[in-house]
């Protein structure tokens, strides 16, 4: 009897438009949201698992409605003459709903990861427990839906449970504490400490067993479901408590200078230890990436090499290393190198690397450092009217058009704002230089003169073969 009911319910769930509609929605939406970002095996499964809660919500509602079907619209009288009992139907749904939900979640997660892996070089390191948690969360939603449908037959019961769980999941903005007692924990950054993903997966599966037993106990107290509840709780309580006790990333003190000692001890060695980077040399320039992010080095090279190639031989030989940095702990990185972040794909990130090369090789960063004092924390290094600023913007223009100073995208949580101050005249002359034939040869031939902070734009125009078209006075308090 249970076997036939299982096949019947499985067919109904497989054909249900809400289940597969949510599956396609999750796959399409997550692909769209990450389309402009390079695949990151650390973050992609976590992001997809968070969005897969939409699929879990659909499964919970559908399973609840299927379970409570035999108690609505005169169905108790119609079913009374059949040999099957409500307990048989509950068992069938406890087999069919988790199976269909797990397959749908596996299709969404597997399809998304396949699309991401095919869309370019992938960085990061894959934690296999994370995509499995998406499947387990769907299974949990199915068993919870059956339990809700059996114990609360109102049509609104399933959507109410979904609303409460959805609010708790999406309003939880930090790791640790009670957050890990939810089916998914979607908040993470690639340079945070490792997540208790394996423990959390075991907790979710144990919770699914608990709700499955609770659904069966609605009919009568029997040893098998009672044991399932007890054993599920025996596993869920310690694993959930252990996962929930995971310490969140270190909170930074205020009104103090942050140093390496403030970096979370669980990641200090990983990002600042002697083996933190894997380095390789390409076209005379050294590129260093964190383990797992080496496939992105050719992408960084596309943003750095055009700028380096425009330099004269001597400064090209002194070009800085390209050394990946950890955005969350960037305050402890004083390497003074070109610093790609732990995500890649946004146009601003290409510009950021080009700026690092241009500003360092022209000495502008050195001037900004000398200009900075604790009492002038918000002060800008005024380089208006200086020829080297035009050259720096021309160098950046090999990768990204010259533009006004603005905050650049580092990752989804941070931006970066240059400490240099330039104006429209420098931008205008840089654009003219980019359009000027033979500009590279003129810049290289007059490099030493152009790099002097005292060389004004007006003095540099004849050297660059440009006419005077903009008023470019030196700043009131020039940064030399």
Structure characterization notes:
This protein has about 475 residues and is mainly α. The chain is about 55% helix and about 5% strand. Strands 1-2-3 form a three-stranded mixed beta sheet, with helices on one face. Strands 4-7 form a two-stranded parallel sheet. Strands 5-6 form a two-stranded antiparallel ribbon. A hairpin with a 2-residue loop joins strand 1 and strand 2. It is elongated. About 40% of the residues are buried. The mean pLDDT is about 90.
Task: Name some characteristics of this structure.
mainly alpha; 480 residues
The main β sheet shows up as: 3 strands, mixed
Radius of gyration: 30 Å
**Helix content, binned percent:** 40-55%
- SS field, number of helical segments: 20
Q: Please, what is the average pLDDT?
A: 88
Order of helices and strands: HHHHHHHHHHHEEHHEHHEHEEEHHHH
Low-confidence runs (pLDDT<50, min 5 residues)? Answer: none
Our measurement of the CA-to-CA distance between the termini, rounded to an integer number of angstroms, reads 87 Å
Secondary structure tally: strands: 7
Q: How would you classify the helix and strand content by structural class?
A: mainly alpha
Q: How would you describe the shape?
A: elongated
| Share in β-strands | under 5%
Q: What is the topology, as strand order, of the major beta sheet?
A: 1-2-3
């Amino acid at each position: 009897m249970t076997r036939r009911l299982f096949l019947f319910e499985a067919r109904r769930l497989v054909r249900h438009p809400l289940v597969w509609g949510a599956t396609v929605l999750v796959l399409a939406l997550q692909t769209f949201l990450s389309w402009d970002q390079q695949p990151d095996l650390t973050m992609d499964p976590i992001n997809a698992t968070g969005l897969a809660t939409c699929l879990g919500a659909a499964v919970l509602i559908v399973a609840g409605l299927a379970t409570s079907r035999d108690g609505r619209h005169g169905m108790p009288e119609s079913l009374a003459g059949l040999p099957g009992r409500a307990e048989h139907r509950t068992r069938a749904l406890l087999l069919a709903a988790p199976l269909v939900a797990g397959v749908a979640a596996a299709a969404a997660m597997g399809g998304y990861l396949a699309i991401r892996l095919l869309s370019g070089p992938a960085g990061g390191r894959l934690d296999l427990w994370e995509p499995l948690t998406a499947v387990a969360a769907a299974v949990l939603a199915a068993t919870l839906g059956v339990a809700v449908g059996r114990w609360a037959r109102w049509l609104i019961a399933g959507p109410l449970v979904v609303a409460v769980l959805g609010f708790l999941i999406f309003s939880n903005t930090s790791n640790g504490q009670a957050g890990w007692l939810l089916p998914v924990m979607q908040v993470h950054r690639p340079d945070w400490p490792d997540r208790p993903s394996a423990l959390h997966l075991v907790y979710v599966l144990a919770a699914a067993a608990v709700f499955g037993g609770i659904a069966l106990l609605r009919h009568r107290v029997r040893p098998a479901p009672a044991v399932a509840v007890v054993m599920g709780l025996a596993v869920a309580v310690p694993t959930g408590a252990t996962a929930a006790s995971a310490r969140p990333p270190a909170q930074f003190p205020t009104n103090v200078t942050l140093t390496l000692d403030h970096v979370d001890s669980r990641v200090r060695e990983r990002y600042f230890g002697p083996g933190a980077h894997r380095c390789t040399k390409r076209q005379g320039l050294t590129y260093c990436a964190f383990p797992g992010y080496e496939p992105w080095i050719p992408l960084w090279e596309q943003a750095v090499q055009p700028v380096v190639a425009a330099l004269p031989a001597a400064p090209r030989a002194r070009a800085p290393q390209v050394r990946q940095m950890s955005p969350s702990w960037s305050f402890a990185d004083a390497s003074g190198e070109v610093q790609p972040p732990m995500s890649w794909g946004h146009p601003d990130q290409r510009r950021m690397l080009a700026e690092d090369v241009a500003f360092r090789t022209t000495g502008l960063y050195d001037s900004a450092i000398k200009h900075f004092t604790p009492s002038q924390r918000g002060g800008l290094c005024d380089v208006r009217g200086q020829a080297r600023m035009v050259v720096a913007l021309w160098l950046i223009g090999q990768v990204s058009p010259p533009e006004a100073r603005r905050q650049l995208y580092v990752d989804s949580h941070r931006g970066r704002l240059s400490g240099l101050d330039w104006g429209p005249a420098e931008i205008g002359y840089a654009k003219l230089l980019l359009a000027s034939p033979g500009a590279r040869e003129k810049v290289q031939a007059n490099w030493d003169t152009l790099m002097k902070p005292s060389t004004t734009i007006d003095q540099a125009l004849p050297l660059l073969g440009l006419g005077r078209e903009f008023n470019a006075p030196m700043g009131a308090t020039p940064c030399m």
